[in-house]
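Incident log, support desk, overnight shift.

02:14 A customer reports that sequence design results differ from what the structure should imply. Their input is reproduced verbatim below. On-call engineer (initials T.W.) acknowledged and began investigating.
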């Protein structure tokens, strides 16, 4: 690795990097169809946050921010797969899990006409998904962006909170949200018919 060649990676940073790499590369079939756990990503984000004797580098804060976003992303993937398929149909579960796309999911979450019909827990999840998607993009690509440990810590806690509330939302709402995130809307589905209730 380039960092190793220049001697820029500390032993602790190497361990944290390796942990994140294994999480990001681990097959979602590990342990049946459980997939990678959002809590694993949050744990890694907190490890990055507390690296360097609690004085993390900007690179640690950037990776922590990005990792917190991936906790949301994998929570969404798992929810969609479980809402639309049965865990007994492993192949179908994995297919749905891997069908979630970052940009499409974000755009779906910003569709106010549809999102206003969902319960608050799903609205909160969608809003956090959009916010963290944008922060993750800045963390990964904007060299001028500066991150504060306190702000990243608050984001990690907020992500954990919305994921927990989202998981406890009734299945029918999560199933409707999965369809909204994954499926192309019908031309005449922009507005509900008279007397028709949204999810």
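02:41 Re-run completed on a clean worker. Output:
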């Amino acid at each position: 690795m380039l960092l190793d060649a220049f001697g820029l990676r500390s032993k602790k940073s190497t361990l944290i990097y390796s942990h994140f790499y294994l999480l990001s590369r681990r097959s979602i079939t590990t342990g049946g169809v459980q997939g990678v756990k959002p809590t694993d990503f949050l744990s890694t984000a907190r490890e990055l946050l507390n690296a360097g004797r609690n004085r993390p580098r900007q690179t640690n804060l950037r990776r922590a921010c990005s990792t917190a976003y991936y906790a949301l992303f994998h929570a969404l993937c798992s929810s969609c797969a479980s809402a639309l398929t049965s865990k007994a149909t492993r192949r179908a579960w994995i297919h749905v899990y891997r069908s979630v796309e970052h940009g499409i999911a974000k755009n779906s979450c910003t569709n106010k006409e549809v999102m206003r019909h969902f319960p608050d827990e799903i609205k909160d999840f969608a809003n956090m998904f959009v916010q963290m998607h944008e922060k993750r993009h800045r963390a990964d690509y904007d060299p001028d962006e500066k991150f504060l440990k306190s702000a990243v810590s608050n984001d990690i806690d907020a992500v954990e909170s919305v994921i927990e509330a989202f998981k406890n939302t009734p299945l029918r709402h999560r199933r409707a949200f999965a369809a909204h995130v994954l499926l192309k809307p019908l031309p005449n589905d922009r507005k509900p018919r008279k007397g028709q209730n949204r999810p």
